[in-house]
Amino acid sequence: MALPAHITGPAGPISFAHAQPGLTRAHVPIPVEAQVETFLADDGVELVLTRRRRLSRPAASRAVVVAPGLFTHREVPEHQALAERLVEIADVYTLDVRGHGASGGAFTWGVREPEDVATLARRLRHQYERVGGVGFSFGGYHVGTAAARFQAFDAVAMVATPRSFFIVDRHFLLRGIVRSIRAVRNRHSTLRRFSMIPPHGARRPTAAQIVSRIAPAPLLIAHGTGDRLLGTHHARELFARAVEPKSLLLVEGGSHAEGMMLAHAEQLARPLTSFLDRHL
Predict the structure, then answer these.
(1) Which residue has the higher pLDDT, 178 or 231?
(2) Bridge partners for 57 per DSSP
(3) Do the strands 32-40 and 5-9 form a parallel or antiparallel pair, or are they unpaired?
(4) Strands lying side by side in the sheet with 12-16
(5) pLDDT, position 198
C-alpha cells in the first residue's frame, strides 16, 4: 500500500494522500510534443536537451529545467515520466549534463555543470516569464548551486541531493556506485566521459554550504525514506541550513532520486508539481 508523503514547511507538516500506483486515481497522460534541442555552454561545449510542451495549451509563460543525476540522462523512463507530469503546468527542459547522454564535454563533478544550468535558465528567460529548476542527486547540486550563485530560478527543488561530496556513510561514489553498476551497464550511452577529479584549482562548495543562499527563491527538498545510497539525514541537514521559504518532502519508502518515479511516482510527482505550480 502506498503511504502518504509529508511536506514540512512554514505552516508545519502537510499530508498528501496518494493513490496506489496503477489504480484509477493514477495520472492520465496528456498529449505532449517532445523536441530535441542543443545549446552551447559558455566554454563552447554543446549540450543536448529535450523540450516537452503540452499540445493543447497556448504558448506557456513558465518553464522548468530538470537536471538528472549521475549516471543517468534525459531519456530514461523515469525522466520521461516526470516530464509528462511537469508539463501539466509548464514547458519542461530535461538536460543531459556534460559528459552524459548525448551532450559533449567531460563531466566535471559539479564544477562547470551549475554554470551550464544557469546559462540555460538565463536564455529561457527571453521566452518565459518564470523559470524553475529541479535536480536529482548530483543534479540537485547543479540546480541548487545555479540558484545560489547566479539567482537562476524562481523556484528550486532538490531531490536526494548529498549534503557534501565525501560521505563514507552510504557514500554515493563508493557503495552507491558499486550498487549501481548493473543499472549503469543497462543504460547505453549514459555516461560518456568524465574527469577523474575536479579541474585543478576549481572552487566547488558543497550543497550544505550553498543551500542558505538559494532564498528568496522558494525551495523544496525531497528525499525517499527507502533511499539506500543516501540517508534522509542529508535532506534534513540541508533543510535545517536552508532559509525560508522552504519545504521538506519525505516520500515513504521512496528509493534514490529519479528512481522514485518507478515505484513512487505519484508520491513524488504530485507534491513536486504542486510546489512548482504554486511558486512559478
Answers:
(1) 231
(2) none
(3) unpaired
(4) 12-16, 5-9, 246-251, 219-224, 155-159, 130-136, 62-67, 91-96, 46-54, 32-40
(5) 60
